[in-house]
Amino acid sequence: MSSQKLQPPRGTRDLIGDEFRRHHRVIKTARRISALYGFEEWATPIFEDTRVFARGLGETSDVVSKEMYVFEDRGGDSVTLRPENTAGVCRALVSNGLTQSLPRKVFYAGPMFRYERPQAGRYRQFHQIGAEILGVAEPLADAEVIACGYHIQRELGIAEGSVLEVNTLGDTESRDAYRAALVLHFSAHRDSLSEDSQRRLEKNPLRIIDSKDEGDRRLVADAPTIAAYLTPTARAHWDVLRRHLDAFGVPFRENPRIVRGLDYYSHTAFEFVTDRLGAQGTVMGGGRYDGLVEEMGGPPTPSVGWAAGVERLAMLLEAGDLTPPAPRLVNVIPVSEAEEGVAMAVLQSLRAGGIAAEMGYRGNLKRRMERANKQNARAALIVGEAEAARGVVQLRDLDAGTQEEVPVDALVERLRG
User: Fold this and answer.
1) How far apart are CA 129 and CA 401, in angstroms?
2) Is the model more confident about 1 or about 116?
3) Cα 40–Cα 42–Cα 45 angle in degrees, nearest 5
4) If you average pLDDT over every residue of the chain, what do you get?
5) Alpha-carbon distances, residue 3 vs 8, 13, 14 (angstroms)
6) How far is the C-alpha of 94 from the C-alpha of 107, rounded, in Å?
7) 179-190 as b/e, with b when 16 or more CB fall inside 10 Å?
8) Which of 45, 266, 374, 407 registers the highest number of CB atoms within 10 A of its CB?
9) What structural domains and CATH numbers belong to the chain?
10) CB under 8 Å to 104, separation ≥6 — which residues?
11) DSSP category for residue 210
12) Is the CB of residue 129 less than 8 Å from the CB of residue 39?
C-alpha cells in the first residue's frame, strides 16, 4: 500500500467540530421553521435515473452537459448523483401516486453533487435545504414559500445581511413575446456576443440575460425587460405577489435581470443575495416551475419553491460568530473497577434525564480527572467504595472548584439546576 497520506477527494471536505455544528444548526433551524409553515420533510435517493435531471434541468444546461456525475451501474442503467433536489421531489410526487392528493408542502435537506471548480462555499459534494409547494397556482404560495425562507434566515440571524430580489417571468404568452424581443435585440449584436451566448440565441435567448461574460453584460444592460410584454393575467400574478410579500413583512427589491432558462419556469423568480461571500452572492434562490411535474410524467401541476446552500448559510453564521456551543459533559469517574457497575447505572440515569455524560474507559482517578478537565467538562461525579455503598456520589464542580455529596436519585435535578 502506498505511504502517501490519503485526503478527501478534491471539492469535498470533512465536517468536524464547530464546522459540523454550524452545518447542523442551519439544517435544524430550517427543519423547525419549515414545520411551522406546514411543510413535511421528504428524503429522496441520492442518485436517480439520469432522465430525471436531463428533463428537470434541460439537456443543454451547463449542469447537465458539464457538471453532473453520471455513471452506468452494473445493470447497464444510466444513473446520476443528484445535482439538485427539486426534480427528485417532483419525480417522487409522481412515483408515489401523490398527484391526486394536492397540495403538498415539502421540505428537504441533504447532499448534492456537481463537478465544478471548487470555490468559497461551493464544493463538489455540497448540501442543500429546500422547500417546495406543489399543486398551488395562486401567488399566495409564491409569497409564503419566500416568507418561509426569509424566516429561516431571520432565525439564523443572517437576514439583515441578505437582500431579496424578485422578478416575474410571466406566463407562456408573455415569455414568447419577450423571447422574440430578445432575439431581435441580440441578433443586431450577434458578432459581439460570446460563443456561449451565440448558441443560446438560437435555443434559449433568456439565458443570455444571466451571462457572466463582460461583453454580454454590456449588451444585456440595453436589452428590453419583460414588463412591457406581460399579459393581464401575468401582471395580476406579479402585482398580487408583491402585495403578499408586503403583508408577510418580507422586504424586497425588483430585479428584472433574474431569469430562468427552461420553459417550465413561469411567473416568480427570486434570489436572496449577499455581499458577504464575495462574487458568488446568492444564498437562496428559486421560483415557480408549473411544468416540471408534467416533465416527470405527472399531470400539469403548478409548483413553486427554493433551494439554499447549507455551506453558504453556515459561512454567514461563522462571520456573525453564531456558532452554537457544544453541550458540556458531566464525567462519571469510578475510583476502581469494583465501582464501574454503579458508575454505569449513574451514567445511564443522567443520559435518560437529558444530561450529557461520559465515563472514561480506562485510567486511575488522576488520569480520569485530567481527561475531564481536557474535555472542559462542567462536573465530575466520583464514585468510590463508600459512596457506592450509600447510594451517593461526590459531585465536583470543575468551574467553581467545589465538591459536595449528592444522592444518586437527586443528581439529575441537581445538575439541571
Assistant:
1) 44
2) 116
3) 175
4) 90
5) 16, 21, 21
6) 17
7) bebbeebbeebe
8) 266
9) 18-171+231-319 (3.30.930.10), 330-416 (3.40.50.800)
10) 40, 93, 98, 132, 133, 134, 135
11) G
12) no
- Which residues 6+ apart lie within 8 Å of 309 measured at CB? 121, 122, 126, 127, 128, 283
Residue written as grid cell 408577510: 248
Question: Angle at Cα 300 formed by Cα 299 and Cα 301, nearest 5°?
Answer: 105
Rounded to an integer, the average pLDDT of 290-301 is: 93
Helix (H, G, I), strand (E, B) or coil at 379: strand
Across 192-209, average pLDDT: 83
Q: Which residues of 296-333 are buried (b: 16+ CB within 10 A; e: fewer)?
A: bebeebbbbbbbbbbbbbbbbbeeeeeeeeeeebbbbb
Residue 318's pLDDT band, with cuts at 50, 70 and 90, is low
Q: Provide the pLDDT for residue 417.
A: 72
Cα distance between residue 89 and residue 43, in whole Å: 8
Cell matching residue 244: 403578499
Question: Among 417, 382, 415, which residue's Cα sits nearest to residue 396?
Answer: 382
Cell numbers representing residue 123 in the block:
464544493
Provide the 3-class DSSP secondary structure of residue 127: strand
265: left (phi over 0), alpha (psi -120 to 50) or beta: beta
CA–CA distance, 397 with 193 (Å, rounded to integer)? 70
Which among 86, 91, 108 has a CA at the least distance from the CA of 39?
108
Cα torsion for 290, 292, 298, 299, to the nearest 10°?
20
This prediction has a pTM of: 0.87
Alpha helix stretches (DSSP H) within 157-267 = 172-187, 195-203, 214-221, 232-248
State the Cα torsion 93-95-98-102 to the nearest 10°. Answer: 30
Residues in CB range of 295: below 8 A, 6 or more apart: 55, 56, 90, 264
The full length of the chain comes to 417
**Buried (b) or exposed (e) across 52-85, using 16+ Cβ within 10 A?**
bbbbbbbeebebbeebbebeeeeeeeebbbbbbb
Whether 330 contacts 357, CB under 8 Å: yes
Q: DSSP string covering 49-113, please?
A: EHHHHHHHH-TTSHIIIII-EEEE-TTS-EEEE-S-SHHHHHHHHHHTTGGGS--EEEEEEEEEE
Q: Of 232, 294, 242, which Cα lies nearest the Cα of 263? A: 294
- Residue 27 C-alpha cell reads as 439544517
